Amino acid sequence: MALVAHIDSGKTTLTESILLQSHYLSSAGSVDTGSTTTDFLPAERERGITIQSASIPVRWKDWTFNLIDTPGHADFGMEVESASRVVDGAVVLIDSVEGVEAQTKGVWRQLDRYDVNSRILFLNKLDRPGASFRSSMLSVLANRLHPRPMAIALPIASFDPQDYARAEPGIQGLVDLIKWEVWKYDAEGKPSIHALPRTKDELEQSDLFPPSHPIVPHLLPARVTMLDNLAQVSEELFDVLLGLPEDPSAYLSVQSSQILPHLRAATLRNDVLPVLCGSAFKHVGTELLMNYVGELLPSPVDVDPNPKVMAPNAPLRALAWKVGWDKRKGWMTFVRVYAGTLKSQSSVLNASQSQREKVSKLLLLYAAEAEEVDSLPFGSVGAVLGLKHTRTGDTLVSVAGGSNASSLRDIIPPPPLMSVSVIPHSHADLEPVEEALKALARTDPSVRVETLEGQLLVHGLGALHLEIVESRLREEWKVNFEFGQRRVSFRECLGSGDVSRVSNLWQTEIGGQHVQIKLDLSVTPLDEDESPDPLWDGNVVLMANGKPLPPGELHANPNDPLAQVAKGISSALSSSPNTTLALSRAHIQVNGLDYPKEVHPSVLAGASAAILRKVIRAAGQGDLMEPYIKLKISVDEGSVGRVVEDLGEHGGEVLDLNAAEEAEPEPFVEESAYIPPQWLSPSTGKAAKGTSSRMKRTILAIAPLSQMLDYSSRLRALSGGHGLFHMENDGFRRVSALRAVDILRELGRM
Ligand code: GDP
Ligand code: MG
């Protein structure tokens, strides 16, 4: 499972609390002093944010959870993608002072994208002034996260009724509405658990609460509403409730064993969103959360109940979802086993790269400590030592029967949008810098490294991604370099010149022998409505039979002549002879190949690249393209004019000047959720945001990424510090002839 949240909601603090409560740590670290277990990179400690996923198996009661701390920003590259891909369930945290925030919606969509359907919501920081259980629940509905949030625990701010009257913030207890228990935390923070009475009268008389405690009259309605709501999505529970006697206490007699199976099924179907609450900082609610993670979130068997896959001797299939370097242990590859068993001291096939790999040791990593194991069975998550080539996102399979498992890579690195030149401090630093870059690209394949005319270039997904690359190079690899100018990545489209007379022959001398290779290619610009193949970065490459030609590294047999031809095509496309930019929007079909048998297939790569390069040169330089971003800017009415003018000056285009009204969808209705009264969380802080910000205007626009690298400081100046914006990638667009001249000049090509 993953913990996901808007930044500063308490993810790292909750992780520490979980580790402490499950006895992996004797004292919790703190993000505020930079001593936590999962934020272990120095770069992360400094920033106080988590940039690298960490995985820890947590044993709690009869369960083992693999806690995977996913980074929550698109610019962090492939690690976000692969970590999201590997979890089956998620705990989403909300800071209950703030309610649902922008990035809460972002991570929610990310979970949608990877089909992580089962989620639990944890309303954190209820000890803080201004925290509100009610407003947080309402913000879930207002922001349409889920139509059926279901409180399964209620907070007790204080056992002194006066504290409610005085609006004193706090969190001293919890009511478990399913098990019908109350958790009381003493002054040291130690909980004691007490069963609640099962009749209305006894409940009202109970000495678990002081007389006239305001929460007591609310407990029965909260349980009744919860059960009624659950019954709406569970026919069996509906029948159970229908069979109850007509006594107000009857709903209290329903045992947790009668509820849990239905609640679990509904959670797995994503019909309800269980809501828990507490304070990670004070360890209030952590144990209850772990209980319900165990009870409600899916196990690997729920995800793939096929017995053929679970059998210990089934063919192995595992995903390398993270690769990291450890000073003492060397390369560590984190895997999840999706079928069969991974054994130590065994050979496996990396199906994504068609390479055999030798597994030496298998480890379970408990934060700083490691336990060596002999095998990782179906469903487990662990670290592999000894792999030499495997990158984040690669698939590992059994060696036997591996050839038909030459599956496509599970995760395709997104195309790079920005690059920066890397300048080693001295000549002696060049090699270490190159080695460090190579290592980094293995841990994050969305980082690409290239040497162009003697200059070392690093390509990444955005400004923040490159910033993280920079600090990881310094902190983890300790190499000496400077970053040069940052640049967005441009593309060249295939030109429209006549290529019919380009020779399809390539000749060379090998060992004194004249060798001639013939490659029949048809190369045309991609039709406007033809979608490019993501594996070919904006192009389409087909075999003679019209089927897609997989890129070189995805062929089962690297000595397959077509694998070599594919390699050559990639190489020619990666740098056009006209501009050195990567080529885009070409439609290439390999119609025929003729070469002497005695020639080794590896010669074909160079020959194919040379022939395709001739074609691209003959077609002439096509249009240039640059990456665009989509912006959602929210500013006060008074700043709209300045913001729009600035967008125009930077090549942007306003799509909608008044997006707020339309873009704000109807909130989900309250009737299928139990919404407690506001006083349940006393204190008079600011109310959590729902659908406020009516005074603001929301502008939707697109703009070239190259013009928006410093937008946060620009918008601050334009909006008097009140503007907010959010940007996402919007693909490549053709630029005007005027802009093309600018770009070529910037690249030193004119
Ligand atoms: P992350 O960015 O989601 O990992 O959040 P952190 O765990 O780094 O927490 C951000 C800040 O919130 C830190 O200063 C924490 O001490 C604080 N914090 C986290 N949980 C709680 C909580 O339950 N109550 C209070 N009062 N503060 C908390
Ligand atoms: Mg964190």
What does this structure look like?
With 750 residues, this protein is α+β, with helices and mostly antiparallel strands. It has an eight-stranded antiparallel β-sheet. Strands 2-3-1-4-5-11-6 form a seven-stranded mixed β-sheet, sandwiched between helices. Helix 8 (216-232) crosses helix 9 (235-242) and helix 16 (561-574) packs parallel to helix 17 (602-619). The longest helix is centred in the last third of the chain and has 18 residues, at 602-619. 45% of the residues are buried. Bound molecules: guanosine-5'-diphosphate and magnesium ion. The site of guanosine-5'-diphosphate (GDP) has 19 residues, from helix 1. One of its GO terms (cellular component) is mitochondrion. Residues 1-301 form the Tr-type G domain.
Strand content: 25-35%
Beginning-to-end CA distance, first to last residue? 53 Å
Rough outline:
globular
Low-confidence stretches: 43-53, 402-409, 687-694
Structural class by sheet pairing and helices: alpha+beta
Work out the helix count.
21
Oligomer: single chain
The total count of strands amounts to: 35
Ligand types: guanosine-5'-diphosphate, magnesium ion
Strand order of the largest sheet: 16-15-21-12-13-20-17-18
Helix content: 25-40%
Largest sheet features:
8 strands, antiparallel
Mean pLDDT: 86
Report the C-alpha radius of gyration, rounded: 29 Å
